[in-house]
Amino acid sequence: MRKFKTESKKLLDLMINSIYTNREIFLRELISNASDAVDKLYFKSLTDKDIQLGKDELAIRVSFDKDARTVTVSDSGIGMTKDELDRNLGTIAHSDSLAFKMDNAEAQGEDVDIIGQFGVGFYSAFMVAKSVRVVSRAYGSDEAWAWESDGVEGYTVEAAERDGHGTDVILTLKDNAGDESYDTFLSEFGLKSLIKRYSNYVRYPVQMEVSKTREKPRPEDADDDYAPEYESYTELDTINSMIPIWKRSKSEVTEEEYHEFYKTDFHDFADPARTFGIHAEGALSYDALLFIPGRAPYDLYSKDFKKGLALYSSNVLIMEKCEELLPDHYNFVRGVVDSQDLTLNISRETLQHNSQLRAIAKKVEKKVTSELKKMRDNDREEYERFFENFGRGLEYGIYSSYGMLKDELAELLLFYSAKQEKLVTLDEYLAAMPEGQKAIYYAAGESIERLAKMPIVKTVLAKGYDVLLCTRDVDEFCFQSMMTYGAAAAGDGEDAPEQFELKNVASGDLDLASEEEKKEAEETAKENEGLFAALKEALGDAVTDVTVSSRLTDAPACITAAGPISLEMERIMAQMPD
Ligand code: ADP
Ligand code: MG
């Protein structure tokens, strides 16, 4: 028996138990290694005309034996010699694949996509296996060797048999000890789902013998009462879909295919409202495929909702939901980001440098904004549906950023216009404003119908000014954090756009009355001094004051809030949990 080089016992233990948060990634690591081995042989074949590779040789096989508790990953790749087994699997943190990638960096181009780099992935097998046997035959060699280890003391290498070049990695799983995940690893369904989750876009077929049933052929003399008989059989199926849809050119993919991909990968039954992508090249190259869902997930506004985009590196899933890639106000966006340039941390579960993520996130945010604007301008009906689903989040974004996100988000908002009796943007409100109007007026309450009946709304409308009728709970909070709004389009020029105050018609003095009306009100107040004093006394602490108003059209009286908080906001705040 040979000893691992380096402080291997400790290191291996550390590796196995603390690098990975998720045990099931062992399969991802072994499939990645198999893919690298096939890739290396494929690369060789590109430069060596004598190497003819059959289709079968480029496939990766996964199989299991429930009784023997083994899971096997096989490839017909480049294989390893006795020395290579010793060097590659006997030295922790030695990556031949990384060396290969470096050596061939220039020649590789698009044709090769080596995944390995840290020289630790293989050992993740020991998270689930009590022993690992690797049988390998290097390409061009006629001897096979078997490497075997229990992951504690060391390993052995001895002569073995293998038909053809390639490698079998055979794991004998640990005893269950009541842990159900081991049953998953020893089941067709479990392995299939792990392949699909982590290795769906590995560029070579990952195949499994899958059990199926079929109808037996109908006997020729079958009569009308013949009941069909079934038999089970197994068939080699390719489990992964290989070519990532986001890497295919847009003109080659049908809308149908995009929708199918969205629905299966993001578990939605409805088609997305919008599909769009980013292709970035440069120091940080990446592809992104993004979707705006057609409906809001039921848990969107709950604490359990997790935003994020799937993050892939070299076609292998790194994170299912990378939160850093999406701002909160676009938490509804689904999709994937794929980059070969990410500096991954050793577990390949996260990144070392968040600056890379930040750069991608910034671009994603910009792209979503421009896509929403396009939708708003070109497909209003669909945009209204979108806003119904997700608009609240945009408003919340403005409010929770204390208005900082106003410039980006305010022009995306829609409100019900009392005058035009339809949804309008703030820019449309401004565009329709009559000469002399100094503020944007809104009223907040439970329903459009009730708001439309408010005396003060009628008064403002009577002046020829429009009033936005706000029924979402965040509307008023959003407006309060914005304070003012100026036309977005005007901001593109040299001058800052003229800002208009956002005014709740129900709070404070709107200053709508003409000099004459004011005078009249003053007189009325004087004449009825006694009445107001009596009313005030009768209402006691319930009110701070009783005054004459010039805001009423045909109603005899109305209640207004004294402070900066409107009655509606007070109502919402009272409902909030402490
Ligand atoms: P990495 O993949 O990051 O290099 P691993 O620990 O996963 O690190 O693997 C270590 C090395 O073992 C690889 O670089 C590769 O040279 C070799 N290796 C692992 N699996 C195989 C395989 N199936 N076929 C050929 N070589 C392999
Ligand atoms: Mg590896």
UniProtKB/TrEMBL annotation:
It is found in: Cytoplasm. Keywords: ATP-binding, Chaperone, Cytoplasm, Nucleotide-binding, Stress response. It comes from the Bacteria. GO terms for molecular function: ATP binding; ATP hydrolysis activity; ATP-dependent protein folding chaperone; unfolded protein binding. Residues 1-348 are annotated as: A. GO terms for cellular component: cytoplasm. SMART domains: HATPase_c (SM00387). Residues 22-177 form the Histidine kinase/HSP90-like ATPase domain. InterPro entries: HATPase_C_sf (IPR036890), HATPase_dom (IPR003594), Heat_shock_protein_90_CS (IPR019805), HSP90_C (IPR037196), Hsp90_fam (IPR001404), Hsp90_N (IPR020575), Ribosomal_Su5_D2-typ_SF (IPR020568). ATP binds at E29, N33, D75, M80, N88, Q117, F118, G119, V120, G121, F122, T167, R348. SUPFAM superfamilies: ATPase domain of HSP90 chaperone/DNA topoisomerase II/histidine kinase (SSF55874), HSP90 C-terminal domain (SSF110942), Ribosomal protein S5 domain 2-like (SSF54211). It holds the Pfam family HATPase_c_3. Belongs to the heat shock protein 90 family. Homodimer. Molecular chaperone. Has ATPase activity. This is Chaperone protein HtpG. The lineage of its organism: Bacteria, Bacillati, Actinomycetota, Coriobacteriia, Eggerthellales.
